[in-house]
Each structure stands twice: as structure tokens, then as C-alpha cells.
Design a protein that fits this description.
It is a single chain. The protein has helices spanning about 25-40, 65-70, 105-115, 140-150, 150-160, 165-170, 185-195, 200-210, 220-225, 230-235, 240-250; strands spanning about 5-10, 10-15, 50-55, 60, 95-100, 105, 115-120, 125, 165, 175-180. Strand 1 and strand 2 (about 10-15) form a beta hairpin. With about 260 residues, the protein is an alpha/beta fold. The protein folds into two domains: about 5-195, 2-enoyl-CoA Hydratase, Chain A, domain 1 (Alpha-Beta Complex), CATH 3.90.226.10; about 200-250. The longest helix is centred in the N-terminal third of the chain and has 16 residues, at about 25-40. Helix 4 runs antiparallel to helix 5 and helix 8 (about 200-210) runs antiparallel to helix 10 (about 230-235). The chain has eleven helices and ten strands. Helix content is about 40%, strand content about 15%. It is globular and about 60 Å long.
Length: about 260
């Protein structure tokens, strides 16, 4: 039985984790998520994805500790894209929006960190409590969080495991928008619809270049860009869409993007 609800509409690929009671991720769910996000990656019709959790209390409690306690090996194969199918899907050049509908704990927080945009319900909270169970947040917590907030803030969260409310997360720039619970998915879908109407090759090139610019100086990034290290940038420059944008602007009409 599937633990995901997957829908496609308006070029938006939507994934809802539906695993009562905590939307926790066991190995089978992780592999299912990997298949889903690989499908999104390869689907020419899907421009942007949304991931959220079922219900109004928990986005995801992360790694399923009950499954681990029953013998599931934490070092086993979690499938395409690593834990939750998204945290190590490094060749995904399409934007993913996290609609955090409640608690994002441990791996749930790490799923959100792997996304490009985070919308949060007003009551959402984030935490990495791994030190309380003898492990560490190695599915993106230690890798991504220190680059997104000041290091002392990241260390506080990683070491103490304390919960951070949505408004504090927004203060540090982790959350893009906070909305009432009932408006969370509609707001995420409206934003996704806007992205879906943008030039798809431009969006993909931007994500590839931004990711490839990490730990590089501005000069090094320019050199990499001019040296052809970002194939999607070159694909965009030589595409039909690259000509269509200025043409549509001059003709005062909406552009018709073909993704090629």
C-alpha cells in the first residue's frame, strides 16, 4: 500500500506523505519517495514540485524509530536520492517547495532543508533531536543547515535538539513565507503555478548554477560559467525559448515555452 499521495496538475508535481500517525519515513517509504522524485526529475511536463505531510500536525517526524527498533538497519539502502528520495538527489534541477504543515522533526527538517523554498503553517516547528538518541542529523542537517543560518545558530539546533518555531525560522531566513494552516497548500500551489509559467530551462539553469556555485568565489563561478561547466545554462542560451522570450515581449503577448 502506498504511503504517498501523488498528483499532477498545472505542471505541478505534488507529493503528500501519508503515514499515520507521524508521517515517519521507513526504508520502503524512502524508496517510494525516491522513485517519485526521480519521476518528477525526468518528467518533461512537470516544472515544479510540492512536498507536504497529511494532516495539520506533523509534516514528518523523519526516520521511523519504531522500524529501526524492530530491526530495520539504518545503514540500509534508502533508494534513489538517499533518505526520503530528496536529500541526495543532486541531479534534480527543478525547484521543490516544502509546505510544512506542522512538526518537521529530524529527517523531516532535513527534507525541508533539501527543498528550494519553504512555506510554513503558523504553528510549524523545526528540530533536529538526533543527539538525544545517539546519532546525528546526517541526512542534510550537518551538511546544509550551517550554510543557511549563522554557524552558532546551526550548532545550537544540531547540539541541543531544541524546537525552533516558524517565526524564528523565518527570522533566520529558513522559511520564505508563514501562512495560516488552511492557506498553506493553496499558497504553495499558487506560488508553484507562478514558477510553472516561467521559462523551464531558465529555472533549471538557475538551480544548477546556484548549486554549482557553492563554496566558490564570484570570480570562480564566472569562470565556471564561461568554461561550460553548467550544461543547462548553455542549453538555455541555445534554446528556442531563449528567442521566444524577447519575441513575446516585443509582440506584447504571453510567451509560449517549449522547454527546448
Amino acid at each position: 500500500m502506498s504511503t504517498l499521495k501523488i498528483t499532477r496538475h498545472d505542471r505541478i508535481f505534488e507529493v503528500i506523505i501519508d503515514r499515520p500517525k507521524a508521517n515517519a519515513i521507513d526504508a520502503a517509504t524512502s524508496r517510494e519517495m525516491g522513485v517519485a522524485f526521480a519521476e518528477f526529475r525526468d518528467d518533461e511536463q512537470s516544472i515544479v514540485a510540492i512536498i507536504s505531510g497529511a494532516g495539520e500536525k506533523i509534516f514528518s517526524a523523519g526516520w521511523d524509530l519504531k522500524a529501526a527498533a524492530s530491526g530495520e538497519n539504518e545503514f540500509m539502502d534508502y533508494g534513489v536520492g538517499g533518505f526520503a528520495g530528496l536529500t541526495e538527489l543532486f541531479n534534480l534541477n527543478k525547484p521543490v517547495i516544502a509546505a510544512v504543515n506542522g512538526l518537521a522533526i529530524g529527517g523531516g527538517f532535513e527534507i525541508a532543508l533539501a527543498c528550494d523554498i519553504i512555506f510554513a503553517a503558523e504553528h510549524a516547528e523545526f528540530a533536529l533531536p538526533e543527539t538525544s538518541i545517539g546519532v546525528m542529523a546526517d541526512a542534510g542537517g550537518v551538511q546544509r543547515l550551517p550554510s543557511k543560518v549563522p554557524q552558532n545558530v546551526a550548532m545550537d539546533l544540531l547540539l541541543s535538539g531544541r524546537r525552533m518555531k516558524a517565526y524564528e525560522a523565518a527570522k533566520w531566513g529558513l522559511v520564505n513565507r508563514i501562512v495560516p494552516t488552511e492557506d498553506l497548500l493553496p499558497a504553495a500551489r499558487e506560488y508553484a503555478k507562478h514558477l510553472a509559467n516561467c521559462a523551464p530551462l531558465s529555472i533549471q539553469a538557475i538551480k544548477q548554477v546556484v548549486r554549482g556555485s557553492e563554496n566558490r568565489s564570484v570570480e570562480e563561478t564566472f569562470q565556471a560559467l564561461r568554461a561550460g561547466e553548467f550544461p543547462l545554462y548553455n542549453k538555455m542560451l541555445h534554446s528556442e525559448d531563449h528567442k521566444e522570450g524577447p519575441r513575446a515581449f516585443s509582440e506584447k503577448r504571453p510567451p509560449v515555452w517549449k522547454g527546448r
